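Researcher: Sequence recovery benchmark, item below. Answer with residues only.
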């Protein structure tokens, strides 16, 4: 078998696909988060929204979407459910009614205290050191940036 056919065969093996490694790892990570987030009454995407708002409250929906790489069609139902749960409030901008600002409620701010244990649980389950996780995160972020450029 010529070398180029062997390389092609290797390139098409599932276990050699970066996309599959990322996808299957994402599934495993989401499965790990599920029981932790169930205790908080949040889905994984809702948790991501809350993380962004805990970093900086009072963002516009468009800013949340940019930060999370989500379009408004995906983000709006998430926000409606968080609002129904009493964790956020959505308020139309007085100067431009097309813009909606998202703010944490007192319950949303209080939930941060309960969520504070999650990163430690993930760190423990990963069996990685903090420097290893930081390095992995930075590598994946750099890849995302190159792919979206």
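Model:
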């Amino acid at each position: 078998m010529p070398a180029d056919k062997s390389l092609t065969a290797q390139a098409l093996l599932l276990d050699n696909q970066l996309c599959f490694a990322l996808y299957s790892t994402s599934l495993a990570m989401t499965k790990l988060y599920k029981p932790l987030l169930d205790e908080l009454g949040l889905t994984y995407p809702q948790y991501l929204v809350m993380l962004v708002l805990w970093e900086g409250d009072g963002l516009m929906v468009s800013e949340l979407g940019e930060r999370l790489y989500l379009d408004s069609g995906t983000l709006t139902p998430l926000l409606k459910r968080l609002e129904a749960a009493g964790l956020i409030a959505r308020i139309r901008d007085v100067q431009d009614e097309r813009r909606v600002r998202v703010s944490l409620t007192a319950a949303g701010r209080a939930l941060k205290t309960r969520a504070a244990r999650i990163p430690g649980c993930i760190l423990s389950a990963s069996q990685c050191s903090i420097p290893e996780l930081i390095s992995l995160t930075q590598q994946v972020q750099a890849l995302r940036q190159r792919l979206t450029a």
